[in-house]
Amino acid sequence: MKKVLLVVVALMLTIGLAACGSKNESSNNGGTSNTGNAGTGNANTGGAALSGSLLAAGSTALQPLVEQVSKKFMDDAKYSGITVQVQGGGSGTGLTQVSAGQADLGNSDIFAEEKFVDADADKAKELVDHQVAVVAMATVVNKEISVDNLTKQQLVDIFTGKVTNWKDLGGKDQKITIVNRPSSSGTRKTFEKYALGTKSEDIQGSIQEDSSGTVKKLVAETPGAIGYLALSYLDDTVKTVKYEGVEPKEENIVSGNYPVWAYEHVYTKGEPNEVAKAFIDYLMSDEIQNADVVELGYIPVGKMQVKRDAAGNITK
To answer: Signal sequence span per UniProt (predicted)?
Structure first.
């Protein structure tokens, strides 16, 4: 009996050890390991779905597009493990935050070289530019204003405080109220560079707002108001004014006849990690470029017949 019991115990131990070994081998070979960080999360490798989080901050001119696309991106089963948070604050804020590692994507209406100059020039070299669309800026006024065309000089006179009444521009006797963007705004820099050719003044009595949406609301509600907006913000609550007799329409923009436009940039600090790259690639896909970009009033980069560099030079 003792011999029989010993044999039975030995067999049970052998079977138990074999089962444990098989379980360990299965765990080692079949498990998934996470490598690399993406935003504040992890990006899975080995063919598994990507996961992580991204913070996109900056340009309010680009914000409507990034917000709409990010929702589609997160609803896509392929990217359901990724969370994208979108914030405004202006191009300067976006560039500063992505440079400092506080944001994964820095949205901007201006080249990084225009923000980081002199002692900060090296910061621009650390950033990688992804041009995702073209945006034009239009001068907008309250709908009750009869003026429908302004020259470059007239705009300069308005935004530097030399002209303060619409009657001096062919309109009725009414005070001009400027609704401006802060100095950190890429929309303001684009308007100053390509519409005015000079910096505007924060003159007494003018209104300054961080958000393009708020600018539109104030221009719509304030008698005598004038401001400027990306075409993606235009609707029937405000009146669009021609620039030197040229309307801010796509055919005039792509040909270079309407000069007040800029690239919409998404900057990353260095080459994007795989989660950021997945979002940028999605944003640049034909589906998004030919649908969402156009629907929201932007122009696909590939449609442009002219190119512009950081210095503002235009080439065919």
So the answer is: 1-18
